[in-house]
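Changelog-linked ticket: magnesium ion example.
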Amino acid sequence: MSNDYKPLSPETLGQRLGGLDVMKQAVGGNADAWTVREVGDGNLNLVFIVEGDAGSVIVKQALPYVRLVGDSWPLPLKRAFFEYHALIRQEARDPGSVPQVLHFDESQALIVMERLQPHIILRQQTMEGRKVAGLGQTLGLFAARTAFRGSDLSMTAGDKKADAALFAGNVELCDITESLVFTDPYYDAEMNRHTTPQLDGIVADLRRDEALKVEVQHMKRAFTSRGETMCHGDLHAGSIMVTGEQSRIIDPEFAFYGPFGFDIGMLIGNYLMAYHAMPAHISDADACRDFQDWILSVIDETWSVFREEFLRLWRTERTGILYPKALYEDQGHHFASESAAEQLLGEIFRDLVGFAGIEMHRRILGLAHVAELDTIEDEDLKARCEAKCLKLGQFLVINRNRLTGMDAVLAAARRAE
Ligand code: ADP
Ligand code: MG
Ligand code: MG
Ligand code: MG
């Protein structure tokens, strides 16, 4: 078989991967007996569930273009390489948080990985009004551990620089974020779409807001230049798979070296959109209020767990070149060390608030929307939910350096009623 890239199909997958030992073990020896379904619901790639006598796996393969748009928008296959490298690092930094990688084929841009089962996508779960026990805990730990352990706070200088160089190659996926997240929503870009005419007025207001546009470009500069840690890069509610009790993280193909607060900021932006979309998904007012309170408690927990875990790692795993213990603890200067950590966490907080606000804008004004809002059939109701998100996003970006803590963010979300 040639090594030239060829997209898989349900018909060819068995024949093409049937010879792999890992597939024989995980799925079963007789590839003819496998059931193969393409289940990709994302914007970019092919995803197959392969089932056999011995079990099932996921096969994810990159396409040479953006699935959502088609072959008019080429996108390099090497994103599978970055996804693979991110997955194995995330597994090392926060064991059990991501699907186990079973096989990687660079020339075919494909990853065979553990199938999460019976997990479903978090968005789906929340739209059905179902809670997830421990969600804030799992995501707070994941965000803190990957942030800390992928940075100069933890790694040797050589390892960190090698990783920063490796992920610096993820140019095209970063370009998607640079354009679709940080630029297009704030002017009349070609690929934008929004609920019209209901939102036209507020969209025009946003695009006239000069202070907002300046602040967003400050955040974009942080995204492009502040290579503090390996970020997941696409940590939204479609990149989390859950049961009622467990949460796992998938799809890190956008991985890059960026600001500590990027992933947790995107995530919180997604939670806030779900918060404002819920009235369209739960008709009973009390039940809806209860679920919305739960979403805000998840935000609160995610951030407080992040803080606690980051501080714990600061005290116990600070082996990198930054804030060396030789300057602090070894001199008995514990207060200075704790104070430096608090200052850094303050900076992370101000960044995450900005990223959360921008994420809310781009999911309502840009190319890629979120199902929580996009599936609302009543256009007026949908626009009312979206308008709350747009205004909250604007408030967060503009006031990110003035908000005193997560309580202030949650209060702003409640006020946007
Ligand atoms: P894309 O990069 O195209 O967004 P994803 O990695 O998000 O692709 O996968 C698309 C869908 O495939 C997910 O929404 C999920 O339903 C399913 N999926 C992906 N990985 C797994 C997995 N490890 N276990 C179970 N389902 C998965
Ligand atoms: Mg995805
Ligand atoms: Mg998806
Ligand atoms: Mg993806």
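Closing comment: Example verified and attached. The chain has two domains: 13-114, 120-415. Residues 318 and 324 are 7 Å apart (CA to CA).
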